Amino acid sequence: MPYEPLDFFNAGFAAFVERETEHILSGVAERNLCARLMHHLESVKQRFGFGRYDLDPDYNRMNGQDVKYMLGEDDGRIRIECDLVVHRRAEADNLIALEMKKSRAPKADKDDDRTRLRILTLPRDRAREAVFPAQGEGRLPFVSGYALGLFLVLNADYRLFRIEEYRGGRPVGGVRTVRF
User: Fold this and answer.
1) pLDDT tens, residue by residue, 128-164
2) Which of 25, 152, 138 lies closest to 97 in space, CA to CA?
3) The domain spanning residue 24 has which CATH number?
4) Spatial separation of the C-alpha atoms in residues 163 and 128, rounded to whole Å
5) What is the pTM (predicted TM-score) of this model?
6) Residue 111 sits in which domain range?
7) Domain count of the chain?
8) 126 exposure class (CB count in 10 Å sphere: 0-12, 13-18, 19+)
9) How many other CB atoms sit within 10 Å of the CB of residue 62?
10) CB-based contacts of 152: which residues, under 8 Å, 6+ apart?
């Protein structure tokens, strides 16, 4: 990789909070905010050497067609739908998985997003054994192995984002706060 994925994200995110402050504070849905963030990431991806990557909001596909699932309790399948991903579609080249929640969202919803990021950032061999055994051979490489997971919690009242970083299936680096 030419640059660290976090550097790429930080540049796009800085432009997002600088240019979209009024929009962020307006109360729009997370889906809308992620689409706006995607726009700013798109504008810097060439500069960071990630021009060949696709940015997809609300992405839940594997091989471009099949819906992604993880194994839940009692061997039930849980659908994986990420707020924003940076990846190469239909290739085992996953860069960033991002989830966003507003601070007032239920704790259970935030915990689900954190679990999803832990799973999506697992190395593929660990994910195959621990989480996706029912998915079938041949398709699993497109599900996990994201280099970086990011969980953004927006607190509009205090004009800040809390950012948690995930790598290798676990949180790393503590929590970073970005004020805008």
Assistant:
1) 665 555 445 544 445 678 999 999 999 999 999 999 9
2) 152
3) 3.90.1570
4) 28
5) 0.86
6) 5-179
7) 1
8) middle
9) 19
10) 98, 99, 100, 101, 161, 162, 163
